[in-house]
Design goal:
alpha/beta, binds flavin-adenine dinucleotide, 29% helix, 23% strand, 23 strands, nine-stranded mixed β-sheet
Length: 469
Amino acid sequence: MTPTVTRAGELPDGDPYDVTVIGGGVVGTAIARELAKYPLRTALVEASDDIGNGTSKANTAILHTGFDAVPGSLEAGLVREGQRLLAEYAAGTGIPVERVGALLVAWDDEQRAVLPALLAKAERNGYHAARLLDADELYDREPRLGPGALGALEVPDESVICPWTTPLAYATQAVLAGVHLHLDCRVLHIDTGPDTHTLTTSRGPLRTRYLVNAAGLYADEIDRHLGHDTFTVTPRRGQLMVFDKLARDLVRHILLPVPTSAGKGVLVAPTVFGNVLLGPTSEDLGDKSDTASTADGLHFLREKGRRILPELLDEEVTAVYAGLRAATGQEDYRIQDHPDQRYVTVGGIRSTGLTASLAIGAHVTGLLTRTGLELGTARELPGITMPNLGEASPRPYLRADLIDRDPAYGTIVCHCERVTLGEIRDALNATVPARSLDGLRRRTRARGGRCQGFSCGPAVRALFEEARP
Ligand SMILES: Cc1cc2nc3c(=O)[nH]c(=O)nc-3n(C[C@H](O)[C@H](O)[C@H](O)COP(=O)(O)OP(=O)(O)OC[C@H]3O[C@@H](n4cnc5c(N)ncnc54)[C@H](O)[C@@H]3O)c2cc1C
């Protein structure tokens, strides 16, 4: 089967799709991957030029245990199940994950008094490995922690994961199994008839029997096209700072604050790429495209970071970025089936969607059957192995076996991140290929290091231009 990934021209004419998923973020690609297990004609339509290009590209990349979710909520269940599924999937497909564990640090008596309640909450969420640490144990675990911490809750299974390889793996597997991926394809209007929906897109009409709305920040707007007015998405910006790899030895765990009603707060966390993250902020905005970093935001993060890990602030900053959570005024996901319309809304996937993605995919597929979709008999998905972007296992430039077979894996193009010619070539020719320099960075790390492309930029651009169809 020839994989179908389109970016221009009219959409394929002919019979309507059985199911169309709107939105190629980590959630939409996970749903498409789940549907790909069945003999259905499925389409995934994405407004931008790549999958994982919205909120999914800019998060804190933590594979949560869900220890602190609201017990009994839909989110709690899907995060717990999603964590299990994604950890297993990552091990099978080569998505980088590091089980570094988290410490929720109490900095005053009030916070310390909350820790037992958090432990009890973790237990209510079915997570039984958490335990309380006194100050001595805490400083044994994290010797560079700032002075004055009184204790912590240890959550040993919290992990860091590659946020970019995850949706790419889902999309790759879905496309290999026959899902049509249509990029640069924004849904502008929806007409719902008795048997089919007709989507007016920026690339012409698309007809589909069943519809899934996984449009992230725009899920409320898609919902209104179908006549529903039950929630409004408020973008909640999270700014983050990425510290240089020289900072990596300063921290061993994900260092979390004790959460408050204002949210999870500012953390310090290692990344699978060998950097250290500080963030995020939490700011409600009116503009769904405002991913700017601000002087105030970065100042706020520096102040918070100085308390948590004072030496971190002496290290170089490699990059700053911001992501927008899809807040809806409800502390739970807004996943809803509409059987009379053969339609499922997947809204309000706020701060845990990366972790929960595979479980959301399975849950939404179940809801589609409630709306009348007949799935048919499930089949095995094609096996895939994703390129390794993580530092915990050998990258291609370290692998003599690969370099022996193909010297391009021994030719380094991006020296900061040790990205080779072979990896760039592969990303440009992959099932879901990189179609922009940013897309190439998310697939290889090229131009993402300390010099931010100052040194390798021209060479990477030349390779990109050469491969452009
Ligand atoms: C700062 C921050 C930190 C976070 N940290 C974590 C974390 O550590 N762990 C974790 O599990 N989660 C985390 N999250 C949450 C996680 O990133 C999100 O839940 C997840 O990325 C949401 O994915 P999505 O697919 O719903 O949305 P998106 O990734 O935004 O995807 C939606 C897609 O729909 C497309 N679209 C929109 N409108 C249309 C249209 N009309 N037509 C076609 N396409 C359309 C968009 O272009 C976009 O690509 C964090 C989020 C933020 C912002």
